[in-house]
Design goal:
Helix content is 48%, strand content 6%. It is built from 16 helices and 5 strands. The chain is elongated. The protein has 3 domains: 50 residues, Phosphatidylinositol 3-kinase Catalytic Subunit, Chain A, domain 1 (Ubiquitin-like (UB roll), Roll), CATH 3.10.20; 121 residues, Potassium Channel Kv1.1, Chain A (2-Layer Sandwich), CATH 3.30.710; 78 residues, Serine Threonine Protein Phosphatase 5, Tetratricopeptide repeat. It is mainly alpha-helical and 334 residues long. It has a 3-stranded mixed sheet. A two-stranded antiparallel sheet has the order 1-2. This is BTB domain-containing protein. It comes from Fragilariopsis cylindrus CCMP1102.
Length: 334
């Protein structure tokens, strides 16, 4: 049932007089008055009072936590050596020894000196610590690396039980030996992303280091880090003298997004890129990558009408002389 005319006029007059929207007002008699209420339904009597007040908006809930505070705490966690239980063993930059020089040293030095050299090499290794629980939570690679294998059945021998307790050696020692191609700086950037989901100084990283981090993210299945590095390379590192290096890296590191961006850049700057000696030298290592570039170039060529064969002045060849089998191209009249 709708309001009576007098009751509705009361609400409208009050809202207009006080410069408020009628929908923002709440009306009370004994209980809150609904839009369909009338004096008859609420049993108003002469002299009864209707209370009017402005409807209060629901206050938004307080912010649960500050994101910046969370990222700051996660970065501070990287310096928490007390609770770290995983170690990355990384080769330092200045410890790379040429293979020929190392062979000569082995021939000239005796056994004692060679053992001392081995000890010195071990001391030169850089150890970067991290939390195993953070690593396993962020990527399936470390989750599988640190997973403990199921013990074998009771019928198997004790030696088999002993060998099947862990799936990988790293799950027991919690030590990851990093490939010599990666520097301690690369591992530090990788850990910063794993802990805080960002790299604060990514703009200061050079192209080669970004490609190394891209390789690392592909090797350790860090999909989000891979996407971040690809985006940074596309936005701020793609130039005529660098596109060939990045395009070749897409083949090695399965970077499809970066590959498409490189092809688009090559098509937009075709003359400059083709005339660059760096592009020519890089493509010698990846000749099959020229095929997508050729296909993209072919798509840019507009398809014109088919060329018709021009007629010559001599039309003697069009005579309807029967051929060797007696058939004629033009049927004869009966």
């Amino acid at each position: 049932m709708l309001k009576t005319q007098r009751f509705s006029s009361l609400f409208r007059h009050y809202a207009k007089y006080h410069g408020l929207r009628k929908d923002d007002l709440e009306y009370y008699f004994v209980n809150p008055l609904e839009n369909e209420d009338t004096p008859e339904t609420v049993q108003l009597q002469r002299g009864d009072t209707i209370m009017v007040r402005k409807r209060r908006k629901a206050e938004p809930p307080e912010v649960a936590a500050d994101d910046e505070e969370f990222f700051r705490d996660m970065r501070d966690l990287l310096d928490d050596d007390e609770h770290m239980d995983a170690i990355f063993v990384v080769h330092p930059i200045d410890s790379v020894v040429d293979t020929e020089e190392s062979e000569e040293m082995d021939v000239e030095d005796n056994n004692s000196s060679s053992s001392n050299n081995d000890n010195n090499k071990k001391k030169k290794m850089v150890e970067i610590r991290a939390h195993k629980c953070i690593l396993t939570a962020r990527t399936d690679y470390f989750k599988a690396l640190f997973r403990k294998g199921a013990t074998s059945s009771s019928s198997s021998s004790s030696s088999e039980n002993k060998g099947n307790k862990i799936a990988f050696k790293e799950s027991g020692e919690c030590t990851i030996k990093v490939d010599p191609n990666f520097t301690p700086e690369h591992i530090t950037y990788m850990l910063e992303f794993i802990y805080s989901n960002r790299i604060e100084k990514i703009r200061s990283i050079c192209t080669e280091d970004l490609l190394s981090i891209l390789h690392l993210s592909d090797l350790w299945l860090l999909r989000d880090l891979k996407r971040l590095v690809e985006h940074e390379l596309i936005r701020h590192h793609m130039f005529v003298h660098t596109v060939a290096r990045m395009y070749g890296a897409t083949e090695d590191f399965n970077a499809q997004r970066l590959s498409r961006a490189c092809i688009e850049f090559i098509m937009s700057n075709l003359r400059q890129v083709v005339g660059n000696t760096t592009f020519e030298e890089e493509m010698k290592n990846y000749p099959h990558l020229c095929i997508p570039v050729l296909k993209a170039a072919a798509d840019m060529i507009p398809e014109g009408p088919a060329h018709k064969k021009q007629r010559t002045g001599d039309c003697s060849y069009k005579t309807s002389t029967p051929n060797a089998t007696g058939s004629s191209p033009v049927p004869e009249d009966p």
